[in-house]
Amino acid sequence: MNSNFINIKVDREERPDIDQIYMHAVQLMSGQGGWPLNCIALPNGQPIWGGTYFPKKQWIQSLSQIATLHHSNPKKLKTYALKLTKGVRQSDLITTNPQPQEFTKKHIIAMVKTWQKYMDTQRGSTHRAPKFPMPNTYEFLLAYSNQFNDDIILNYVNTSLTNLAFGGIFDQIGGGFSRYSIDKMWHIPHFEKMLYDNAQLIQLYAKAYKATKNTLYKEVVE
After folding, report:
1. Residues 65, 171 within the same domain
2. What pLDDT does residue 85 have?
3. E strands within 2-121?
4. Does 129 fall in a domain?
5. Global confidence as pTM
6. Residues 68 and 136 in one domain
7. Is the peptide bond before 130 cis (omega within 30 degrees of 0)?
8. Is 90 exceeded by the pLDDT of residue 218?
9. What is the pLDDT of residue 94?
């Protein structure tokens, strides 16, 4: 994989829009979809081949064949990718609105107001399990609370980050966060640490410390 491909991990919880594109592509190619979703794409992102679960031997053979074809007949892959991309676009239920859209602060405020219905203000995150850290969410809301002087949203961010830090999802001995909590209380972690999650969480807690001077956030970063 590392010899012939640039490997990109997409978290479908955080980027369902990207997941949907490649799910459509795999469904068109194989007639079915699911996870784990594996999709090979050209450098421009256009999918050329994919599927769900592959045994090791089959996976290695498939990657070798695609790499060989890419070197020997790249034009064939590009032609196929164009046709597949066209099929993905046609299968998408959302049509593009060509009219220019006005986007103002009131749209952002309205969006957050709707979002608040799903916020767990007692424990953080949303009113469901499993609970994911979702660092991009809190970075946006941290910036929003500062821009619009919204103490309610800031309190929600602080509640979430505090419960994350004190919960079972945080490794109190070795540092770092597990992928998610399987319960609503942040007590029981799913025992795997994702590098991209932890990289984003360092940035999130650093920004939160800068904004609030809460020493707990500084300790988490360190």
Report:
1. no
2. 78
3. 38-41, 47-51
4. yes
5. 0.65
6. no
7. yes
8. yes
9. 58
CA 135 to chain centre: 9
- State residue 91's pLDDT score: 65
Cα separation, 32 vs 76, whole angstroms: 24
Q: Residue 160's domain spans which residues? A: 105-221
* H/E element, 147: helix 135-147
Kindly tell me if the per-residue pLDDT of 220 is higher than 90: yes
Token couple for 106? 């009131």
Q: Within this chain, do residues 135 and 31 fall inside the same structural domain, yes or no?
A: no
- 46 contact partners, CB below 8 Å, separation of at least 6: 81, 82, 84, 85
Tens of pLDDT, residue by residue over 28-39, are: 877 778 888 999
pLDDT tens digits for range 139-196: 999 999 999 999 999 999 999 999 999 999 999 888 899 999 999 999 999 988 989 8
Q: Quick one: pLDDT at residue 49? A: 87
Q: How many domains does the chain have?
A: 2
Exposed / middle / buried, residue 65 (Cβ in 10 Å: 0-12, 13-18, 19+)? exposed
Residues with Cβ within 8 Å of 221's Cβ and at least 6 positions away in sequence, in order, are: 202, 205, 206, 209
What the block records as the tokens of 48 is 């050329």
Domain match, 85 and 157 both: no
Exposure of 181 by Cβ count < 10 A (0-12 exposed, 13-18 middle, 19+ buried)? buried
Six-digit token string for 133: 């850290």
Distance, CA of 111 to CA of 105 (rounded, Å): 10
3-state secondary structure 156-209: HHHHHHHHHHHCCCECCCCCCECCCECCCCCCCECCCCCHHHHHHHHHHHHHHH
Q: Are residues 59 and 120 in the same domain?
A: no
Residue 8 located in a structural domain: no
